[in-house]
Amino acid sequence: MSLGRVSLETLPPLRDVLAEHGLMAKKAFGQHFLLDLNITRKIARLAEVGAGDRVIEVGPGPGGLTRALLETGAQVIAVEKDPRFGPLLEDLAAAAPGALTLEVADALDADEAALTGGQPGHVVSNLPYNVGTALLIKWLTGPWRPASMTLMFQKEVAQRVVAPVDGDAYGRLAVIAQATSHAAIVMDVPARAFTPPPKVESAVVRLTPLAERPSPARLDALQKITAAAFGQRRKMLRASLKALGGEALIEAAGLDPQARAETVDVAGFLRLADAWLAARSA
Ligand code: SAM
């Protein structure tokens, strides 16, 4: 049977590959593996990538999601911090000639533009939970802008990304994600789907960039404002934003002086960012 552009069907089951290489999950690297190819193929389908696409996968580990991505015909650039997976992933690269590149590196330090050769790229990953939020903020606000992101998070983080204003999960992550992207939870994944199972449930979030992304200066200001506002989310904004302009800033943004961070929508935060930038340049 030929699966897409590459034939990977002769590879042994992932459990056997792990056993053959004597590999066990390491907690320090946030390793919880997806060994069921039905699940990884579903994630690859949800990512909507295929032949001609460049995909950065953070943390391929034993390569279950990597196999599914390669089956779509995509060009996969895998960034893995744990060098123990090198030989196993070299075997996978040999089964998909020319389609898989491996970088043994920390994804937090990766230069994605260099990895994709200056071409547009997507990110698809079952993220290590300890650095998931930091990586998402890097891709949402940094100089390299992914064409789409399909990311597994612990469910509570996924809910914080898509949270509506006024909800319990609404905070900095929701504002920054939604000021830059369309974001939706596209799949729930139970803890038992992973080896070893984590203590929490998981979910896959898909993010696609808004046509108009705020400028770097606006994003910078948004990060400052949301850090101060949600740092003291129970306080009124005029108190939590005192050091950044307090009431004058809130008035310039056209907001209620009684407002608290959790009641201000994304557009309101963008107006606060603009008011702060305007006050600084005045
Ligand atoms: N993709 C595999 C799967 O679905 O079975 C493994 C997912 S596991 C949740 C996270 C992976 O990310 C592990 O392979 C781990 O070694 C790797 N990892 C952890 N921190 C990393 C970092 N800072 N940069 C790159 N990879 C990292």
Pick out its properties.
9 strands; elongated; 12 helices; binds S-adenosylmethionine; Rossmann fold; 17% strand; 2 domains; two-stranded antiparallel ribbon; 282 residues; Helicase, Ruva Protein, domain 3; alpha/beta; seven-stranded mixed sheet
Textual characterization of the structure:
This protein is an alpha/beta fold. The chain has two domains: 196 residues, Rossmann fold; 66 residues, Helicase, Ruva Protein, domain 3 (Orthogonal Bundle). Helices cover 39% and strands 17% of the residues. The chain is built from twelve helices and nine strands. A seven-stranded mixed β-sheet has the order 4-3-2-5-6-9-7, sandwiched between helices. The chain has a two-stranded antiparallel sheet with strand order 1-8. Helix 2 packs across helix 3, helix 6 packs parallel to helix 8 and helix 8 packs across helix 12. The structure holds S-adenosylmethionine. The site of S-adenosylmethionine has 23 residues, from strand 1, helix 3 and strand 3.
Ranges where pLDDT stays below 50 over 5 or more residues in a row are 1-6
* Helix content range: 25-40%
Sequence of secondary-structure elements? HEHEHEHEHEHEHHEEEHHHH
Structure summary, number of beta strands: 9
User: CATH architecture of the largest domain, please?
Assistant: 3-Layer(aba) Sandwich
**Class inferred from helices and paired strands:** alpha/beta
What is the strand arrangement across the widest sheet?
4-3-2-5-6-9-7
CATH superfamily of the largest domain: Vaccinia Virus protein VP39
Ligand species: S-adenosylmethionine
CATH top level class name of the largest domain:
Alpha Beta
Sheet with the most strands, sense and barrel status: 7 strands, mixed
| Average of pLDDT | 94
- Rg result: 21 Å
Shape designation: elongated
Strand content: 15-25%
- CATH fold category name of the largest domain: Rossmann fold
Number of domains: 2
